[in-house]
């Protein structure tokens, strides 16, 4: 039978080929992705990204019809390269300040991890048990009122 095969008709293959390629086509087992801690502090932006945030606002004002992100990035990159060290200094100072804050946050975060406490556990402990019970009672009362009507 010549022509295209139907879906019901199995494809003919050589058994010897199957045996040889059986191990060759296997993919290695997937490694499980590490789950990122949402409480971990985010890294601070570099001096260029501090500059980029300011430049992006100005660029949008000057070129309101431009919607391409790549154009903004290229323009910012060329402008950053053309700036002198003195012009880059204020952006570098802001980045250094954010870096110091980040370092303090990371130390505090690591200290919490060492103690075995997460921020979520601390938030739960802040809310007293009486407040939790009050919330449950309010839910119960609202449910009773609906049944009476």
TrEMBL record:
Assigned keywords, A-Z: DNA-binding, Nucleus
Top-level taxon of the source organism: Eukaryota
Region (Disordered): 1-45, 73-149
HMG box domain boundaries: 41-110
Composition bias, Basic and acidic residues: 1-17, 31-40, 94-103, 112-132
Pfam families: HMG_box
A GO term from the CC aspect: chromatin
Family listed: Belongs to the HMGB family.
Location (main, coarse): nucleus
Record localization: Nucleus
Gene3D superfamilies documented for this protein: High mobility group box domain
Protein name (record): High mobility group protein 2
Record field: compositional bias (Acidic residues): 133-149
The entry's DNA-binding region: 41-110
Keyword presence, Transmembrane: no
One of the GO biological process terms: chromatin organization
One of the record's GO molecular function terms: DNA binding
SUPFAM superfamilies reported in the protein's UniProt record: HMG-box
């Amino acid at each position: 039978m010549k022509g295209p095969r139907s879906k019901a008709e199995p494809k003919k293959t050589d058994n010897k080929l199957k045996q040889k390629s059986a191990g060759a086509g296997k993919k290695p087992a997937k490694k499980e992705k590490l789950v990122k801690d949402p409480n971990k502090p985010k890294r601070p932006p570099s001096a260029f990204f501090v500059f980029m945030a300011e430049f992006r606002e100005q660029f949008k004002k000057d070129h309101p019809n431009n919607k391409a992100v790549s154009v903004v990035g290229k323009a910012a990159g060329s402008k950053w390269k053309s700036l002198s060290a003195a012009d880059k200094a204020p952006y570098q100072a802001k980045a250094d300040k954010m870096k110091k804050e980040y370092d303090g946050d990371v130390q505090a975060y690591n200290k919490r991890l060492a103690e075995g406490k997460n921020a979520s556990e601390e938030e739960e402990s802040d809310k007293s048990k009486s407040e939790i019970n009050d919330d449950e009672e309010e839910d119960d009362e609202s449910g009773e009122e609906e049944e009476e009507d």
